[in-house]
Amino acid sequence: MTKLETLQENLRAVLGAGLQLTEALGEVTLVVPAERLIAVCTTLRDHPDLRFQSCMDVCGVDYATYRNGIEPAPARFASVIHLLSLEHNWRLRVRTFAPEDAFPVLPSLIDVWPSVNWFERESFDLYGILYEGHPDLRRILTDYGFIGHPFRKDFPLTGNVEMRYDEDQKRVVYQPVTIEPREITPRVIREDSYGAGR
User: Fold this and answer.
1) Beta strand pairing call for 77-85 and 171-176
2) Mean pLDDT computed over 142-171
3) pTM value?
4) Alpha helices, DSSP H only, in the chain?
5) What is residue 70's DSSP assignment?
6) Backbone phi and psi for residue 129, each to the nearest 5 degrees, phi listed first
7) Distance between CA atoms of 88 and 45, rounded to whole angstroms?
8) pLDDT of amino acid 190
9) What's the CA gap between 148 and 152, in Å, rounded?
10) pLDDT above 80: residue 129
C-alpha cells in the first residue's frame, strides 16, 4: 500500500466513509462543508493517525469561470488549506466552499492553527472572503483605502482607482484610473524559408 493510500484509508477510518476525497498529481484533496470545517480540522490536527500539526498555507480561489470539462464548481469562492504532518510525512489539501457567492463567509481556523492569521488576511484582501472569528481581519497587501479585491475574476485589469502624491495638497490622493486602453500588436518579420534546412 502506498503512502497516499494509507493516508486516505486513515482519513476514512477517522472521519467516516462519506468523505469527498480525490487524488491528483501526488496529492490528496479533502472537500469539507463550511459548517464542519473547524471540527474536521481539529480532528486532522489532534488525531494520532493523522497529526497535521502544521498549516503551511491558506489561499482563496475564485471559481467564477472554472469548468473542469464536466461541471462547474459547486460555488464561486473557496478557501484551500495546505496541511503538513511532520510525524507521518504527509501533505493534505483541504478545500471548503463559501455557501454564498455574493457575500463569502467561512469560519476562521486561527484557533486551530494560529499560523493562518496572515494567510486568511491575504485571502480576505485579494478575494473578499470573510473569515468569521478572525481577530484582526484587515487588508494586508493592498492599501487600506483600496476599492475591491484584485484577484477576483470580475476585477477590472486596470483597477478602479489610482493613487499619486499631490504636490499642492502635500498628501497621497486617489483618482479614477486614467489609463487609455490600447492594443499592442507585435510585428514579426520572417523570411519565407525560415526554419527550412540549409
Assistant:
1) unpaired
2) 85
3) 0.79
4) 3-15, 37-46, 117-127
5) S
6) -80, 125
7) 12
8) 55
9) 9
10) yes
- Per-residue pLDDT band for 179 (boundaries 50, 70, 90) equals low
**Contacting residues for 163 by C-beta, under 8 A, at least 6 apart:** 143, 145, 172, 173, 174, 175
CA distances 111 to 38, 132, 134, 166, Å, are 9, 12, 9, 44
Q: Which residues pair with 95 in a beta bridge?
A: 31, 80
**What is the per-residue pLDDT across 62-85, written as a single tens digit (0 to 9) for each?**
998 876 666 678 899 999 999 999
Q: Enumerate domains of the chain plus CATH numbers.
A: 3-134 (3.30.460.80)
**H helix count then E strand count, the chain:** 3, 9
| Grid cell digits, residue 124 | 480576505
The contacts of residue 143 (CB under 8 Å, 6+ apart) are: 163
Residues 54, 86: contact at Cβ < 8 Å? Answer: yes
The amino acid sitting at 87 is: E
- In this structure, the chain runs to a length of 198
Contact 58, 25 (CB under 8 A): no
Reported as a single tens digit per residue, the pLDDT across 17-42 is 778 999 988 899 999 999 999 999 99
Instruction: Supply 28's cell numbers.
Output: 490528496
CA-CA distance, 116 to 111, in Å (whole number)?
9
Q: What is the pLDDT of residue 176?
A: 80
Query: Would residue 169 be called left, alpha or beta, if left means φ above 0 and alpha means ψ between -120 and 50 degrees?
Result: alpha
The x, y and z cell numbers of residue 134, run together, are 478572525
